[in-house]
Amino acid sequence: MSAGALLAGTPGTPTVVLVHGLASSFRVWDKVVPRLETSANIVAVQLESSSSIEADADDVAALLGPDAIVVGHSRGGLVATGLAERHPELVAALVLLCPPWSRESRLSARAPIERALAIPGLGDLLWVLASEDRQRAAQQNAFAPHVPVPDQFVADARSRGREDFVRSSRAIDTYLGARPLPERLGGLRMPVDLVFGELDARVARPVGHFDGLPRARVTELDGVGHTPPWEAPEVVATLIADYLPDTVESAAPAEET
């Protein structure tokens, strides 16, 4: 499989790579990109989600030059980590937003509905019979309770399909089963920002699991669920801007329409 990309921002400035999560697309970054485009060359990746985190990481590597700031949301955080492991010369810093950090941390993946979706036949039937409203309800746990699920997120999941969802989800378990995220980050030499939502219902809070990593900073966002790029884009942009030169005003909230 290969990856495509939406290119935005200002050529000649530092490169910021944005990697979406499971059953998602580059549109998850729609509120972040306007806050950085004057100070960064932005590569918003569109993954074709192979059965391997490592393969996805190599696909992203094919789009990049050296010293990129790599930002990954959820599953995309693992792809970003895989990129740093396999191609460290391409990565200057990592910003990981709500990444699953062990197989056991994946709260929603252990729920009955996601386990049923993985069963051939039954999973196909459940997917086909699910209305748009039902799929929207199923995605509510990706956001804080007070945040409505955007239409684009429902459309992205439906267009991806069940097989892509199951294949991409299994890749997460395989990757974390081999080595959990804290162990992987401990072997990296670039700085890492880890961001988790206080109200995340998909990934368990990593209390103490990243302690002792000298180059890692952990931030918990109050009132935010599993999708900080949409729920708190100004905070995400500011965290990224910390790695950009002369970006005092670059992360200021853009006018939204």
Automatic annotation (TrEMBL):
InterPro entries associated with the record: AB_hydrolase_1 (IPR000073), AB_hydrolase_fold (IPR029058), AB_hydrolase_sf (IPR050266)
User: What domain of life does the UniProt record list for this protein's source?
Assistant: Bacteria
Q: Give the matching Pfam families.
A: Abhydrolase_6
Sections of the chain in a coiled coil? none
Q: Which residues form the AB hydrolase-1 domain?
A: 16-237
This chain's protein is named Pimeloyl-ACP methyl ester carboxylesterase
